[in-house]
Amino acid sequence: MVVEGSLTARRRMVEALAAGGTVRSQSVLDAMRSVPRELFVPRFWAPVVEGGGQEVREWRPMAGDLGAETALLLAYDVDRALALKPPQRYPGTGQVLSTASAPRVVGCMLELLELSPGDRVLEIGTGSGYNAALLRRLVGDTGHVTSVEIDNEVAEEAAAHLADAGCGDVEVVVGDGYHGVPEAAPFDRVVATAGCDDIAPAWLAQLGPGGQCLLPLRHGAWHPVTRAWPDGSGAQARVEAPAFFVPLQGRQSAALPWPGDHRSRHHSEPRLAALPDAVALALSRQHAGVAGADKARWNLAYLLPLEDDRAVSLLALAEGASLAEVHQRGDRVLYSGGEGEQLKDRLVDVAEIWLSLGCPGYGDYTSRLAPVPGRPPGQRGLPRPDGRAGWEQQGRRSWTVERYDFVQTVCLERAA
Ligand SMILES: C[S@@+](CC[C@H](N)C(=O)[O-])C[C@H]1O[C@@H](n2cnc3c(N)ncnc32)[C@H](O)[C@@H]1O
To answer: Which of the four pLDDT bands, split at 50, 70 and 90, describes residue 389?
Structure first.
């Protein structure tokens, strides 16, 4: 009965991912149809939200008492990430740091990885082990999957789940993925499944010829899924898809220019201001269908952290207790606090820069990550260029972001 329910749930999940265009290749669809996700999330934690509000009152373990049907519904909800541990297990952070990523994100990244049978893959962040099992299906018996997990307890459970799912030959390594796994290199792909503040030099060094990394690279408060490939002593990179991830832990946590708050919160009653018509129109032009509406917001959200260090959430600026954010409908700004009005003006300013650049999409930028000259890995202190806003040269607008081991130069070819 449960087996049949699982098959049906997997079929529905795969249909949803294919219909939304997230997954197109048959091999990824087949892999996702073949791996029972519920084996990897026999229990997880869910927030209990205060009546109607956004405040989380407590986190509760969800396990066998859910009933098989509900458990399957949750395990195969394409947009639901499941917390493997509650925030109270991460003292001092107030955050969940280990999840089974939502199937839509998993499918999207697998599609972008373009794996072939025989490939060798390094995954950073084993989590539940579900993605590792899918990677194993895609590379087949002639390939190899190594997965690093920093949390011993999470790694142990993942290894057990992988064995239950018939993927016992996935090598689960406990440690900080920042160092890669040199003994198992070279890899055709390195894929990080936690939000990275930078690419790690070891990931580039451990790639074989033609190899690539795919990583959620922090940008403001979100993590665009970024493809990076070696180029001389650094890398070139391109954003492939929008996403939010839990942050990578361990050595690579950088003092990035942005505060990194996920959520914006008004501390006093917000005021309202209309966005200029042209901006509202640009944000709503792609409103045909939910995906389109999202896309316009993500596109503006890529420019915002380049232009202003105070970017939080997706389309918001914050300073102290002051906040200005573009309303979900995209036609007005909500702002509060003493600096709220100034933040609102700046938000409108950046939206107008976006318009003047021709409403570029997040995929229209190219990046180069260069090692910081004369700075030992992990040491910060490079003098920042004046301000954060970009400069323009020969029809290209550029910005720099100082990360941990690399400085990223983001470029946009200006439309003629
Ligand atoms: C979003 S979860 C991974 C989801 C996983 N791939 C899956 O299929 O369920 C991110 C994981 O990365 C792990 N992690 C965080 N920092 C790490 C690091 N520096 N090295 C290795 N693993 C890390 C976390 O403990 C967490 O389990």
So the answer is: low
